[in-house]
Amino acid sequence: MIIVTGASRGLGNAIYKRLSETGHEVCGLSRDVSKIEGRSYKCDVSSYEQLKSVSKLLKKDKVKVTGIINAAGVASMNLALTTPPSITEKLIKINLLGTIYSCQLFAPLLLRNKGGNIINFSTIAVSIGLKGESVYVASKAGVEGFSKAFAREMADFKVRVNCIAPGPIDTDLIKGVSSDLISKVVEKQIIPQKFKTNDICDIVELILDQKASSISGQVFYVGGI
Question: What is the CATH number of the domain that holds 31?
Answer without folding.
Answer: 3.40.50.720
